[in-house]
Design brief:
This protein is of the alpha+beta class. The protein has three domains: 5-118, Gyrase A, domain 2 (2-Layer Sandwich); 134-275, no CATH class; 297-462, no CATH class. It contains 17 helices and eight strands. The chain has helices spanning 5-15, 44-48, 71-105, 107-117, 120-132, 136-155, 162-174, 176-187, 192-203, 223-242, 247-310, 317-327, 332-353, 358-372, 377-387, 389-410, 437-462; strands at 22-27, 31-36, 55-59, 62-66, 211-212, 215-216, 415-417, 431-433. β1 and β2 form a beta hairpin. It is globular. The relative contact order is 0.09. GO terms for molecular function: kinase activity; protein-N(PI)-phosphohistidine-sugar phosphotransferase activity; protein-phosphocysteine-N-acetylmuramate phosphotransferase system transporter activity. It is found in: Cell membrane. It is a multi-pass membrane protein. The chain crosses the membrane at residues 131-154, 160-181, 188-207, 296-317, 329-354, 391-411, 441-463.
């Protein structure tokens, strides 16, 4: 599949109802994300059986197809090209075919799918994730540059270059509210640039002259949460205006009101409220780790793999972004990253146990490098989840690693990450904390080793594969 993304794209599109059934094509680090006009037209079993497809997550009217890092980018590009080229010419015929298939399966099936996969909670999480997932590459790149800049400052290297490196690394985070506003408006059906314009109010230096609730506002107050709320309000105002403003005045009044009304509400309400929520998140995270760090780490590390399996882990990005904005790093990500360590340990145990299963051992060998770098889906969908019990023991390994890191947080040694996205070994360049870089890295490494070892031992002891068949005589 790596060598022929076009054929993989064709096979995927055939099994999701054809190009005309696809309304949007995106991807994250490991998953091809397709939004579908008719989810009932998907042949789930055939899609999961495709070579190279590691798993499929059904989420309302979308399908997340796990392909793995490196592969997903090429396949996504091929899918987008085929949807664009074939969708126009075949759209009407395929749409009719999809409609006939849906009718034959019955409205009850569609309603059942919608009820199970489009709950308000899951839909809200998915839409929030859609706002922040496109920002991950910039968060990773700027986070790594920030880490390098800190290393150069501490070591006294390249003093003439470090201010420039700091500016390049910090500029995106200083304006992240604008990008959040742009993506929020796009996701909720508004004009993206108007969402960005309203969200820009949050970071504009001039807000320091505005008094709200008896105090001057601070630029950036409310952070990404304020930007998210401001842009969402802007989309509601814009939609209201579109249906009521006369056509001749729409081009003038609608943008003006869309910026003015939410802008004033942001200044005199949302920034203050979002700032209070953001402060509460930071205070709660610090309190949680300082008082119940080991327990908190155990719970977070143990439950993260199921969130990844369901595709809900991206909804935590606003919390990470808020902590990074407040404290310079998120203390939650290193705890959650321990889930990947448990997964690696479990996969190694399966590899040892299944000496005669050459196919599965090949899958493990190919997926382990990604697993060590924190990309867990290939091991989840290719190894532990199909086998059942190793998935549970992998969660146990993640819980043990999280408890290890959380225990040191109780002692006052915080381990955080300056960016969102990488985990496993890939998180080392992004580590930060309130102690020396060496101690922070040592604690994180200790958590990884604990997760590897616990995941391996728990799986090795609990997993009893069927005996190999006796050779024919």
């Amino acid at each position: 599949m790596r060598n022929d993304p076009a054929s993989t794209a064709t096979a995927v599109l055939t099994r999701v109802g054809g190009p005309a059934n696809v309304t949007s094509v995106t991807h994250c680090m490991t998953r091809l994300r397709l939004t579908l006009a008719d989810p009932a037209a998907v042949d789930e079993e055939a899609l999961r059986a495709l070579p190279g497809v590691l798993g499929v997550v059904a989420d309302g009217d979308s399908r997340q197809i796990v392909l793995g890092p490196g592969v997903v980018e090429a396949v996504t590009a091929a899918v987008a090209q085929q949807v664009g080229e074939q969708g126009a010419s075949r759209g009407a015929a395929v749409a009719r075919q999809a409609g006939e298939q849906a009718a034959s399966r019955g409205a009850r099936l569609k309603e059942d799918l919608r009820r199970r996969n489009s709950t308000p909670f899951k839909t809200a999480l998915r839409r929030i994730a859609n706002v922040f997932v496109p920002l991950i590459p910039a968060l990773i790149g700027c986070g790594i540059l920030a880490g390098l800049g800190g290393l150069f400052v501490n070591a006294g290297w390249l003093p003439a270059l470090t201010p420039a490196l700091s500016a390049v690394a910090s500029a995106f985070m200083a304006l992240i509210a604008v990008f959040v506003g742009h993506n929020t408006a796009k996701e909720f059906g508004g004009t993206p640039v108007l969402g960005g314009a309203v969200a820009a109010v949050v970071v504009y230096p001039g807000v320091a002259k505005v008094t709200a609730f008896g105090a001057h506002l601070a630029p950036g107050q409310g952070g990404v949460l304020g930007a998210l709320a401001a842009a969402f309000l802007a989309t509601r105002v814009e939609k209201w205006c579109r249906g009521r403003v006369p056509g001749a005045l729409d081009v003038l009044l609608t943008p003006t009101l869309t910026v003015l009304v939410p802008g004033l509400v942001t200044l005199y309400g949302l920034m203050y409220a979002a700032g209070a929520v953001a402060t509460a998140i930071g205070t709660a995270a610090n309190w949680l780790l300082a008082t119940t760090g080991a327990v908190a780490g155990l719970v977070l590390g143990g439950l993260f793999l199921p969130l990844v399996m369901l595709g809900l882990h991206q909804a935590l990005i606003p919390l990470h972004a808020t902590l990074i904005d407040q404290q310079g790093y998120t203390v939650l990500l290193p705890l959650l990253a321990m889930a990947g360590a448990g997964q690696v340990g479990a996969a190694l145990a399966v590899y040892v146990r299944l000496r005669h299963d050459l196919s599965l051992r090949t899958t493990i060998r190919s997926a382990l490098p990604a697993g060590l770098l924190g990309v867990g889906e290939p091991l989840i969908y290719g190894v532990s989840l199909p086998l059942g019990r190793p998935f549970v023991t992998a969660c146990a390994g993640g819980a043990a690693g999280g408890a290890f890191v959380g225990f040191f947080a109780m002692l006052g040694d915080k381990v955080g990450a300056t960016a969102i996205g990488p985990s496993g070994w890939a998180l080392f360049p992004l580590l930060a904390g309130n102690r020396s870089p060496a101690l922070t890295a040592a604690i994180y490494a200790g958590g990884l080793l604990t997760g590897y070892l616990t995941g391996f031992l728990a799986t090795y002891l609990a997993f009893r594969p069927a005996p190999a068949p006796a050779p024919a005589t």
